[in-house]
Amino acid sequence: MEKLMMKGSEAIAEAAVRAGCRLFFGYPITPQNEIPEYMSRRLFEVGGQFVQAESEVAASNMIYGAAAVGARVMTSSSSPGISLKQEGLSYCAGSELPVVVVNIMRGGPGLGGIQPSQSDYWQSTKPGHGDWHPLVLAPSTIQEAADLVMDAFDLADEYRNPVMILGYGLIGQMMEPVAFREYQPREFDKSWTTCGCKGRPPNIVNSLYLDPNILEEHNHAIFQKYERMKREEVRFETFRMDDARFCLAAYGTVARICKTAIAQLRDEGIKVGLIRPITLFPFPEAVFREARVRWILDIEMSMGQMIEDVRLAVRGRTPVHFYGRVGGVVPTPDEIVRKVREMYKEGVK
Amino acid sequence: MTSSTGGSMPEKQPFKQVFGYPRGLTERPTHYCPGCMHGVAHRLVAETLDELGIRERTVGISPVGCAVLAYNYFNCDMVEASHGRAPAVATGIKRARPDLYCFTYQGDGDLASIGMAEIIHAANRGESFTVIFYNNAIYGMTGGQMAPTTLVGMRTTTSPGGRDPLQKGAGYPICMAELLNTLEGPFYIARQSLLSSREIIRAKRCVKKAFQLQPRGFTFVELVGTCPTNWGMAPIESRRWASENMLPQFPVGVFRDREKEGDA
Amino acid sequence: MQYEVVFAGFGGQGVMLIGQLLANAAMMQGKEACWMPSYGPEMRGGTANCTVVVSDEPIGSPVVPAPGAAVVMNRPSMDKFEPMLKPGGLLVVNSSLIDRKASRTDIDVIYVDANHLAEHTIKSPRSANMVALGAYIGRTNAATPEIVKEAMAKKMTNKARFLPANKAALDLGISVSREQE
User: What is the domain partition of chain A in residue ranges?
Assistant: First the structure.
């Protein structure tokens, strides 16, 4: 496979096209503009359509429409824009529509900043209104981003549910070598789509259920899909956990920074490993629960969001500590080394 | 309204059917209030789907508002949109499947308030779908609040003393057909009323025209109707009131017809 | 072996491009490579910079607080990145536009009159960035000159007519850095 040096945003866009995505609806916001820019050139080359929507709200409803007629469709945005897209995404979840959405996070709250941040863990894994989750995939390299985008479209179709790719400036703006795998198209049932009712009774794509009993049933049906995701789709990476006495928990590029720190700490004789969730929903609970370590240090570019899921996973059996940088400040390997060294010396339990 | 039910009648029958239930509607009873004209507007769309033979190639989009359950009444594939976003949903549908016909069915709160951005930009892009805009100057479903098309002085539950643009800063009625007519994008823009049989026949012509012209671009038909329940009037009285008060604010006519302009 | 280098200068000096060339060349040489730009308003008018990491192993942190090298094309970049360098690191200074000497004594410094050489020797004023890149790869083994030239030919297809000048500028930079060894 030929390797190409690509920006993360462009690799994400190209992977989508190679996975059969022919429609993109988006709205400019830094730091993800390279995705709509790339799509605006690329999609017309392959007979697709690109619309620069009037707002994120509109874009999230355009993907709803395109998914309703069975198209592979994607949108992308960054944190404040994802807040606006929550409307359409909730309707997609309620109407069981397969869509892929890319969130290149930035700092908040409010307008926040544009530098790398993981402050959308909550609004990604535990999103807008209603009982629902997207399946959330968090790549740590550009290669993984490209691979996960291809998987995202299949997962969206498999579960008829939104799938989110969660990155930030480090993933979106960075360039690394990428080799696109040959995408193998799979067949999915599309008999539910609203493409004209020739030869059958009309189909309805809808999330309105005025009868409480029926809505309750619908909620249970959606959550059965999430239970299946928890059984079948959990992904994570472990790094030097075999003999680890201490464990770092981090996702995305932060996990790579942790690996650099771990190499140094191991040289000092501190046996520390890493668990990197790749699916943030469904969260890899078992691997955390089963880790036989003295403590877990959760490291995020947020005030501590994923840590709630780590704590729920270990059910109080393992102490979970936190180290975070926010506002767009990226933690360095050195500061992680210092933090772990400190905890080690103080005998933190 | 003289429509047939399509080719289902055997030939050489002694009686000729001159009026029937359109295939474009399901047989489900609607939830609309007595005297409401949503049913009439639905029927005009349904007859059009039958007459143009496009029912099985059409996707309708129902709004949020009184017509939220329209997906139960139109006998074609239907998609329920979030409040005001029907034009965005239609954009997604038509960009994915330009071979289909697509219409949005929206009320005044949905289209002219929360969905203003979506309608303006879809019109401006010239997206090829048809908008059926039912304007009765009030929020019906939520219980009679002020709409963007509420007339000056008109009482609603949120303008209890009458809509007051000056003292209370409640703004003026927005005329959507005229507003959209300032854009280059739309192909066809018309406004008609549903207040008498004669008016309904004229409205039907425009609805049909809008669907016929849909493959060529954005087509928009505003239908001025009533809301007896929330206006607090009997059906007949509400029609008279609408004739006298709504029509001067919302004059009927064809505002844009690019096909005719092309012929000229 | 891991190389980390920051390329920094005014927007328009082509620092992002030489960073990408190095990253591409490293990839073509079968190494791991990562290019990380600064982005956002700081790109408008101020300094632009990118960090390139080249390694034989999968790259951990793409963020490098203390890089092994910096190529600085203007004074603000020198002021910003000189203090950040690892002890024993390498600083390539564009002496055409930077009127001061390095203040640290624990680093290697190459002074290269990049703009002047590009304008008067190469007759291609816009190739100053390539002279500077040459000075960097002349001193390190992050990528071979041949591969960098290959990367140039691949990456700059729409600017093919500048290719000979850019290659000459790269060679000139390499020889300048070797003279100062």
Answer: 4-194+205-232, 237-345
- Among A54-63, A335-344, C43-52, name the one with the lowest average pLDDT: C43-52
Query: Which residues are paired to B139 by β-bridges?
Result: B145
User: Of C20, C60, C61, which is closest to A175 when you measure between CB atoms?
Assistant: C20
What is the mean predicted confidence (pLDDT) over A326-347? 95
Q: Which residue of A has its CA nearest to C17?
A: A175
Q: Which positions ≥6 away from B66 have C-beta within 8 Å?
A: B32, B36, B38, B107, B140, B141
The reply to whether A176 touches chain C by the CB within 8 Å rule is yes
Q: Give the chains touching A; criterion: ≥3 Cβ pairs < 8 Å.
A: B, C
Per-residue pLDDT averaged across B171-188, rounded? 98
Sheet bearing C69-72, strands edge to edge: A4-7, A175-178, C32-37, C47-55, C2-10, C69-72, C90-94, C108-112
- For residue B151, what are its two tokens? 């007339």
**Beta-carbon neighbour count of residue C106 at 10 Å?**
9
pLDDT at res. B8: 55
Q: Which CATH class is domain A4-194+205-232?
A: alpha beta
The model's pLDDT over B17-38, given as tens digits with 9 standing for 90+, comes to 888 899 999 999 999 999 999 9
Residue A314's closest CA among A335, A344, A336, A284?
A: A284
Q: What are the DSSP calls for A254-304, one per residue?
A: HHHHHHHHHHHHHHTT--EEEEEESEEES--HHHHHH---SEEEEEESSSS
Q: What is the pLDDT of residues C124-149, one digit of tens each?
A: 999 999 999 999 999 998 999 999 99
Q: What is the pLDDT of residues A156-173, one digit of tens each?
A: 999 999 999 999 988 999
Contact call for residues A306 and A281 (beta carbons, < 8 A): no
**Domain encompassing residue C122:** 2-179
Nearest to B166 by CA among B175, B148, B153: B153
DSSP class of A236: E
pLDDT range class, residue B4, cuts 50, 70, 90: very low
Task: Provide the pLDDT for residue B49.
Answer: 98
In chain B, the domains with their CATH numbers are: 38-263 (3.40.50.970)
Best mutation target among C39, C54, C56 (most A Cβ atoms within 10 Å) is C39
Partner-chain contact C36 A334, CB within 8 Å: no
- Chain A positions touching C24 (Cβ under 8 A) are 5
Q: Do chains B and A touch (3 or more CB pairs under 8 A)?
A: yes
Q: What total of structural domains would you count in chain C?
A: 1
Choose from A4, A104, A176 for mutation: most chain C CBs within 10 A: A176
Mean predicted confidence (pLDDT) in A228-253 = 98
Say what the ipTM of the complex is.
Answer: 0.95
Instruction: Find the CATH number of the domain harbouring C94.
Output: 3.40.920.10
For the purposes of burial, counting CB atoms within 10 Å of the CB of B133, is it exposed (0-12), middle (13-18) or buried (19 or more)? buried
What is the distance of C-alpha A93 from the center of its chain? 16
Per-residue pLDDT, averaged over C31-39, amounts to: 91
